[in-house]
Amino acid sequence: MRNEFEIEIRRGLIGTELGSCQFFDPLPEFTKYMTTLDAPIIDVGAGAGQVTECLVDAGLKAVGIDMHRHMRPVYHVQMADGTDFPYPEDCVVMLCRPCHGAFAEQVIDQAIARKVSMVLYVGLERNVEDDLGDFLPRFKKVAIAVGLGGEAIWRMDLGKAHNRKDRRNHAVGVAGSSKRASRKAGAHA
Ligand SMILES: C[S@@+](CC[C@H](N)C(=O)[O-])C[C@H]1O[C@@H](n2cnc3c(N)ncnc32)[C@H](O)[C@@H]1O
């Protein structure tokens, strides 16, 4: 899945400007779930940084990275390619409403290579199968209705558990295995 040529091309695009849309608009249920985790969070494809800001405001360690500079940033976002980022071991890699195509799968490949503890996908039911591709069966839906658009959270554990001991077994939403719906092409983030 890792393609050195693609990575080289992306390097030339890091820091270029890209639009002003914000996709994931977190509800308190999102923060409630995230505060059950006990590891630094990397918000990959952070866009304007609104989700990173929400996590930091909730007292969590979080940083946002994005390849493109948002036209109206609300929080500091580091310019970097998420498919080639040196994720610290044991961190949580989070993708909120990622770009479609191979992006999410390439980030997950890199996260696995870097031995992160967990990957979170925050998005819409209609996109999850396309975005996560072959990784989907390894994810478990752990929370629903965490954003204004009706987003849910899917989680893949890779390393040791990082739930806070005092708040185990996530207070938010439904936990059930992801339903494999028909793969749709061309859906929006
Ligand atoms: C659909 S937007 C979502 C932004 C934000 N997470 C939100 O919910 O508002 C996807 C973001 O992924 C970023 N992105 C795309 N490819 C990337 C890459 N290889 N590395 C880092 N960010 C990337 C885009 O620049 C864009 O900001």
How would you describe what is shown here?
- 22% of the residues lie in helices and 19% in strands.
- It has an eight-stranded mixed β-sheet, with helices on both faces.
- With 189 residues, it is an alpha/beta fold.
- The protein contains five helices and eight strands; from the N terminus they run H-H-E-H-E-E-E-H-E-H-E-E-E.
- It has helices at residues 4-11, 28-34, 50-57, 103-113, 125-132, and strands at residues 41-44, 62-66, 77-79, 92-96, 118-123, 140-143, 152-157, 176-177.
- The protein is globular, with a radius of gyration of 15 Å.
- The protein has one domain: Rossmann fold (3-Layer(aba) Sandwich), CATH 3.40.50.150.
- Mean pLDDT is 86; it is low at 166-188.
- The two termini are 21 Å apart.
- S-adenosylmethionine binds at residues 10, 18, 22-24, 44-47, 65-68, 81-83, 96-99, 103, 189.
Key descriptive features of the protein:
189 residues; alpha/beta; eight-stranded mixed β-sheet; disordered C terminus; binds S-adenosylmethionine
What's the SSE blueprint?
Elements: H1 4-11, H2 28-34, E1 41-44, H3 50-57, E2 62-66, E3 77-79, E4 92-96, H4 103-113, E5 118-123, H5 125-132, E6 140-143, E7 152-157, E8 176-177
Parallel strand pairs: 1-2, 1-4, 2-3, 4-5
Antiparallel strand pairs: 5-7, 6-7, 6-8
Residues 10, 18, 22-24, 44-47, 65-68, 81-83, 96-99, 103, 189 line the site of S-adenosylmethionine.
Q: TL;DR?
A:
This protein has 189 residues and is of the alpha/beta class. The protein has helices at residues 4-11, 28-34, 50-57, 103-113, 125-132, and strands spanning 41-44, 62-66, 77-79, 92-96, 118-123, 140-143, 152-157, 176-177.
